[in-house]
């Protein structure tokens, strides 16, 4: 594949051009031109340069015929208040970095061998009212995973954690680390371990209709609000009552089965905040391929209703994951279980 990148009519040099989640990438020359050797298939081509809006191009080699010209548009938000705010590398920043690494890289044994090479480019913000934790990267993140043998360049678009819900978006490019035969053999084995039970493994086996043979059990469940837990509005109102009356929690009885006044009721309401916000009800087990995806115009679509519980029976949970917090209970490892929570219809 060949192409060129311009700002208006001026060619841009050193623009990053790569295929997302692959090892294929390059930069433009002084004429704004680039060349990528690509095997047949469909890819997400990323064209990125600081100060301009990122270009995401759906590349299909079957209908791509001639060099493509990409024209950048300036990103008006590139110098927003968050990005230019000074980062203070104090104990709070170090604590936030540890939290970010735990959520972004993970807690598996292989994750422990992954190192962020330039953590100083990260800036963190915390909104106490919303319990919202966000991370920003001023430059491309560089990571080295010595367990998998990869040098990873990651363009972080968004990282947000609200309560216990984490979402992040970004684009990655991989390079092989240098190593001898022994290291390469270890990396190959570890990559197989990382792949088995992953989202990519599940989706590929689902498309090939081999997911049951490969160890996946897929069940369907409905998630509903827990009626035993008060609403967020009611909990916040109860907290306001307690604050207004300046009640010390130590002075309130712990067992209030029959609240006698507004203060008692407020405390009972706040205590119920510990209850799960949702309850899950399994209503269909052992789903088939046609229950989960369909194909249209050579594209696969997720079509399942509500949510999926996906059990990978050929691998158990790691102890490091089970004990991810200081107060985690000591439990026996079970088969890996994940959930697909439906946000909107997604294109595979």
Task: Describe the overall structure.
This protein has eight helices and 20 strands. It is an alpha+beta fold. It starts with a strand and ends in a 7-residue tail after the last strand. The relative contact order is 0.09. The mean pLDDT is 86.
Write down the Rg: 25 Å
Helix content: 10-25%
Regions with little confidence, pLDDT below 50 for 5+ residues: none
Total number of beta strands = 20
Separation, N- and C-terminal Cα atoms: 24 Å
Q: What kind of sheet is the major sheet?
A: 6 strands, antiparallel
Structural class, by secondary structure, is alpha+beta
Sequence of secondary-structure elements: EEEEEEEEHHEEEEEEHHEHHEHEEEHE
Overall, the morphology is globular
What is the tally of helical segments? 8
Q: Overall mean pLDDT score? A: 86
- Work out the strand percent: 35-45%
Brief synopsis:
This protein has 348 residues and is of the alpha+beta class.
């Amino acid at each position: 594949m060949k192409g060129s990148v311009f700002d208006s009519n001026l060619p841009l040099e050193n623009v990053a051009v790569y295929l997302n989640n692959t090892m294929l990438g390059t930069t433009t020359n002084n004429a704004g031109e680039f060349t990528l050797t690509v095997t047949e298939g469909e890819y997400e081509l990323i064209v990125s340069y600081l100060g301009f809006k990122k270009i995401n191009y759906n590349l299909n080699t079957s209908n791509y015929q001639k060099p493509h010209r990409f024209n950048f548009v300036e990103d008006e938000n590139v110098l927003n208040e968050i990005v230019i705010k000074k980062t203070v590398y104090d104990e709070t920043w170090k604590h936030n970095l540890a939290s970010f690494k735990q959520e972004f890289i993970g807690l598996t044994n292989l994750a422990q061998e992954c190192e962020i090479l330039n953590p100083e480019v990260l800036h963190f913000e915390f909104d106490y009212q919303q319990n919202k934790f966000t991370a920003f990267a001023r430059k491309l993140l560089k990571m080295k995973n010595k367990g998998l043998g990869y040098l990873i360049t990651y363009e972080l678009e968004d990282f947000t954690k609200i309560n216990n819900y984490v979402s992040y978006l970004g684009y990655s490019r991989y390079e092989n680390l240098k190593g001898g035969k022994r290291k390469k053999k270890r990396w190959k084995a570890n990559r197989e371990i990382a792949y088995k039970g992953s989202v990519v493994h599940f989706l590929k086996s689902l498309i090939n209709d081999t997911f049951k043979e490969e160890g996946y059990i897929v069940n369907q469940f409905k998630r509903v609000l827990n009626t035993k837990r008060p609403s967020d509005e009611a909990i916040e109102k109860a907290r306001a009552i307690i604050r207004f009356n300046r009640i010390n929690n130590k002075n309130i009885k712990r067992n209030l089965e029959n609240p006698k006044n507004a203060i008692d009721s407020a405390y009972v309401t706040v205590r119920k905040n510990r209850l799960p916000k949702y309850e899950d009800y399994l209503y269909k087990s052992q789903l088939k391929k046609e229950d989960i995806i369909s194909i249209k115009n050579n594209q696969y679509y997720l079509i399942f209703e509500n949510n999926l519980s996906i059990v990978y029976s050929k691998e158990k949970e790691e102890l490091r994951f089970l004990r991810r917090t200081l107060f985690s209970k000591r439990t026996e490892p079970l088969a890996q279980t994940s959930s697909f929570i439906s946000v909107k219809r997604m294109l595979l």
